[in-house]
Amino acid sequence: MALHLRVIESQQGLHAAVAEWSRLLRSAGGAVFLTPQWITSWFAALDGAAKPAVLVVEDGAGHWRGVLPMARTTLPWGPLRLKVTDFAGAQVTTSDHLALVAESADADPVWECMRPWIDAEVRAADVLRFSGMDEGSMATRVRALAELPGLQVRGPVREVMPFLELPDSYERYEQSLSANRRQQLRRFSRRLHEQGEPVRFCTNDQTRPLDEVITDMTRLHSALWRSRRLPGTLGQPAMQRFVRLFCHAAHQEGWLRLHQLYLGDRMIAAIVVFHWGRTACYYQSGWDLAFQHLHVGELLLAHSIRCGIEEHMSIYDLLRGDERYKDHYATGSVPQVSYEFAARPIGKLRLLAASSRARLGRLVRRLRRESPVR
User: Fold this and answer.
1) Number of domains in the chain
2) Are residues 92 and 152 in the same domain?
3) Which of 70, 204, 278, 281 could join 53 in a cystine, given CB atoms 3.0 to 4.6 angstroms apart?
4) How many CB atoms are located within 10 Å of the residue 184 CB?
5) 315 phi and psi, to 5 degrees?
6) Considering only CA atoms, which of 73, 84, 53, 69 is closest in space to residue 354?
7) What does the alpha-carbon distance between residue 241 and residue 243 come to, in Å, rounded to a whole number?
8) pLDDT in tens, 288-330
9) Do 118 and 99 share a structural domain?
10) Domain encompassing residue 227
11) What is the CA radius of gyration of the chain?
C-alpha cells in the first residue's frame, strides 16, 4: 500500500478536513481530545499563539490512514523564547489520551511514513514534546526517538488517570460504595433539601442559555480557586475561550453534559462532562463557596455519574491528576507518560533544568514525609 504524507498548516485546512478526520476517528477509535472539534476549538482559542502542523497520511486513493495532530508554539523561558512542537491541545487545555489516530493494522506503516517529518522537526524546534500519552504502543513509538544521535531526552514524565468503571445501574453503583460513603451522600442530599428552597438538577440549556451557564460556572470556578490563592485553569483567558467554544461544538454534536445544581433560582454548582463513545469525561467544575459546607460539588458529581450510567456509559474518566477526592470514586487508573526531545543547545539546557527542578521537588516532598511531626 503506497502511503504519502501531507501536513495541514492552516486553520482553514483543518476545517476543510473535519469530515474525513471524523470518519477516521470513528473507525480507529480515540478520545474526545483527538476530535477535530476539540483541535479546531483549541487553535481558535489560542488566537494565533499556536500554528497547526497536523500530519495526515493518505493512501493512493486519497483516503486518510492516519492523523497526528501537532502544533508549533513559542513559549517563554526566562528572557528567551523557545520554539516548541507538541500535540495540538496539550498546552492550556490539559488534553489527555493523546495519540496517533490510525487503525491498528495501519499504525506502524503510518508512523513510519511520518518519521522523516518528526526526525526533521526535532532538529528544527528547540523542544519536540509528546505530552499526555497513555502508556502503550504510542508511547513505545515515541520512546524510540531517543535512539536518534545527539538528542537530550526527558522522560518518561509519569502521571495517573483515575477512572471509574460504571455498572449497568445506579443501584449497583451505590452497592459498590462503602456503607459510610452511602450514608455520607444521603446525608449531604438531605441537608441540601432542608434549606427550604427547591433543589433542581439541569443539563446544558434546559433552563438558561448555554453562554449564561458557562459564564456562571467560570465565575464559581475562579472564585473557588482564588480562595485557595491559586488561579485555577479557568483563570486563563485562552482556557475560558476554549471552554466556551468547545462546549458549543460539543453541544451541537450531542457530547456535552453541562450539569447544574440549583437551590431555588441560584446555580450553586456546575460540572462539565463530555459523553464520547461509551466514556464520560469529567472536565471542569465549580461550586458556590457559600454552600461548600453542603458538599454541593460532590452531590453534583454523583448526579453526573448517575446520568452516565443511565446513558449506558461504561467508563467515567476523572482525567489527569491524583487529587484526593478522586479516591472516593476511582476503581482504577491509566498510567500516562510524556517525553521531550531536544537537539539544539538551548533546548537541551531547558530539558536539563526541568529534570533538575523535578528531582529537587521529589527530594523536598520526601524530606517532608520523613521529617518528624512536631
Assistant:
1) 2
2) yes
3) 70
4) 15
5) -130, 135
6) 84
7) 6
8) 999 999 999 999 999 999 999 999 999 999 988 777 788 888 9
9) yes
10) 167-313
11) 22
